[in-house]
Fold this sequence. Notes:
Elements: H1 6-13, E1 18-19, H2 22-31, E2 35-40, H3 52-63, E3 67-72, H4 94-108, E4 119-123, H5 125-128, H6 133-139, H7 146-151, H8 153-161, H9 165-168, H10 170-185, E5 187-193, H11 197-211, E6 216-220, E7 233-234, E8 237-238, H12 248-256, H13 263-270, H14 275-282, H15 289-305, H16 307-322, E9 333-337, H17 338-342, H18 347-353, H19 360-368, E10 372-374, E11 377-378, E12 392-393, E13 398-405, E14 409-416
Parallel strand pairs: 2-3, 2-5, 3-4, 5-6, 9-14
Antiparallel strand pairs: 1-6, 7-8, 10-11, 10-13, 12-13, 13-14
Helix pairs in contact: 10-11, 12-15, 12-16, 13-14, 13-15, 15-16, 18-19
Amino acid sequence: MISPGAFQALKSRGFVSQCSDEAGLSRLLDERELTFYIGFDPTATSLHVGNLMQLFAMSHLQRAGHRAIALIGAGTCRIGDPSGKSEARPILPVETIDANAERFRVQIGRFLDFSEGRGLMLNNADWLAVLNYIDFLREIGRHFSVNRMLSFETYKMRLETGLSFIEFNYQVLQAYDYLVLFQRHGCRLQMGGEDQWGNIVAGMDLIRRVEGGEAFALTTPLVTRSDGQKMGKSEKGALYLDPGLVSPYEFYQYWINVPDADVGKFLRLFTYLDLKEIAELERLKDREINKGKERLAYELTSIVHGAGEAGKAAEASRALFSGQKAALDAVPTTTIGLVEFNRGIPYVDLFVRTGLCNSKSDARRLIEQGGASVGALQIGEVTKIASLAEFRKAGPGRWEGELQAGKKRYRRIIIIE
């Protein structure tokens, strides 16, 4: 069942940056089931917050009755996309690419339904890895103008720093992906980030030249925070969706601490809440806006990590900020043996070891500025050694405490005999 107004719904939530034909695509989405796709190159071990725009855009369209194709770019990943990059990506071993692809499959599956033909998860290595180079140049390469390729901003920028021949082929391969999906699955819409516009348009043009078919291009905007901080950067670096890289508690904490001005925007982009409910949350002011942040953090953590983990993260967050020491299992924890602890561990080292600081110099600066504490005790000296007296007894041969950096970042310390 097709839900009318799918394109306007995407636009209202903030998912549309550029579109090759807004009126045509809107009309098509209202008339029939449309097959669309987005590609994900497995260049890392996990997807990250930057991928949420594409994942939610796909999910909203699928929920409106359209068929999603999540394309794992294990083939294009062997080359490396120059889009938005100031220098060439490192070439990854094929084994690493395939392992990353399997992790991507699991994460994408939390956003899309692949049952009963509602969606497909494909891998472009299935057709790219077996290409005959001479035949490919003859049948596909002849449709590309080097002058036109160089007119796109991505290539202009990279020509200044150096663009390798292998990267120059990337647009041709991505365009070929679109053609293959058009021919095999009737795919007529490709979506991606703003930096993908040139690649997507190239695929749209290739479909017209080879098949005489009509296809569409749509890009989502780059998301930034109102405070100028790069979207999705935590104290550990990129905010990954893998709980082994960023715990559900840390993920929850990122969203509960976003600037007040971003609450409405992120609720529209990264939850499925009704726009009327979002508008009500967005109108809250001062301390009341925290209700909107809590809803954002819970809803998004539930989607990425499950309702159980989101509930634990919310409970732990409330326990820490209320001064209670219950329900702390979700807080990232560092366990230290009593023998090692009694040898003497400077707090500077402990802040680095727990990941609250990236280096000893960061830890020293934090302590000097009065932003470091253990429990209710401020750590005032950079040479201070951790002592059992600063941790509470939590059972036979066990002590616990909370290391705190600034007002909002915590790590649980457990010392065991």
